[in-house]
Amino acid sequence: MYSNEDDATNSMIHLIKPAPVPINENGDNGRNAYANRQNSVLDENALRKDDTTFIRDQRIQTISQNYEVILESIGEDPSRQGLLKTPKRAAEALVFFTKGYEQSIRDVVSDAIFDEECENMVVVKGIDIYSLCEHHMVPFFGKVSVGYLPNKRVLGLSKVARIVEVFSRRLQVQERLTRQIAEAIAEAIQPRGVAVVIECIHMCMVMRGAEKVNSRTTTSAMLGVFREDPKSREEFLSLGRIAPFY
Ligand SMILES: [Zn+2]
Questions:
Q1: Alpha carbon of 168 to those of 128, 175, 230: distances in Å?
Q2: Which domain holds residue 224?
Q3: The model's pTM
Q4: What Gene Ontology terms describe where this protein resides (cellular component) (predicted)?
Q5: pLDDT per residue over 77-125, tens digit each?
Q6: 59 CA distance to ligand 1 centroid (A)?
Q7: How much distance in Å is there from the Cα of 111 to the middle of ligand 1?
Q8: CA 211 to ligand 1 centroid distance, Å
Q9: Which of 115, 128, 233, 239 is deepest in the core (most CB within 10 A)?
Q10: Structural domain count, the chain
């Protein structure tokens, strides 16, 4: 069904050249350069992409030690039986919740771009999302619907969910997450348009009682045709409608 798989991949890599990495005044092009990088989703290096098992173990150890301090700081006794293994478990959980820092979007999409004459709207809806809000490091969760209008290229369907996974397993704000998913698809296959709608419940709102308990936050990003043409937008919004999940 799909042809020229290799050509499509090569042409993408050829087309999207890595932006030059700016070097700061200390000559450091490592972590700081990440913050100053060119604004291209596909050129982004994941923060923990080069983690070895050794570095990962060190991370877990450091986070565990800090969780022990946190337990003490909230007035608990980290040496009581139920809490003995909590710092390590919590550290492993946190590393898992942020595993989106281990992968770049280029790795996810590079072997899954296919030449296809399809011009019809592609909609992947109701993708589960679990993320951590970067203001409180408390979960927010919900559903995502993604739609795009192909321009001679399509993305392997499972890759849409993978893109969502990579961006959501990082510290996030819902608005940025929405935009990043749309921009990643736009850059990867250069479609005529991309639309993303996310609906989430934020535990930092629900548990702190600051807002209505059941309030959900909806964000959307519309690029290309979806931004310009109300008909395409409406078609996506009816096809991609997110069913109540809570
Ligand atoms: Zn929050």
A1: 10, 11, 28
A2: 113-239
A3: 0.80
A4: cytoplasm
A5: 999 999 999 999 999 999 999 999 999 998 888 888 888 888 899 999 9
A6: 24
A7: 35
A8: 12
A9: 233
A10: 2
Tell me how far the alpha carbon of residue 204 lies from the centroid of ligand 1, in angstroms. Answer: 5
Encoded tokens for 97? 């919740």
- Please state, rounded to an integer, the average pLDDT across all residues of the chain: 84
Own/partner long-range contacts of 235-239 (Cβ < 8 Å, ≥24 apart)? 235/121, 236/121, 236/123, 236/145, 236/147, 236/195, 237/195, 237/197, 239/121, 239/123, 239/125, 239/147
Q: What is the DSSP string of 119-180?
A: -S-EEEEEEEEEEEETTT--EEEEEEEEEEE-SSEEE-HHHHHHHHHHHHSSEE-HHHHHHH
Q: Measure 245 CA to ligand 1 centroid, in angstroms.
A: 20
Residues 93 and 117 in one domain: no
pLDDT more than 70, % of the chain: 81
CATH number at residue 208: 3.30.1130.10
Check which CATH number belongs to the domain holding 63 and give it.
1.10.286.10
Q: What's residue 246's pLDDT?
A: 59
Would the pLDDT of 189 be above 80?
yes
Q: Which residue has the higher pLDDT, 191 or 14?
A: 191
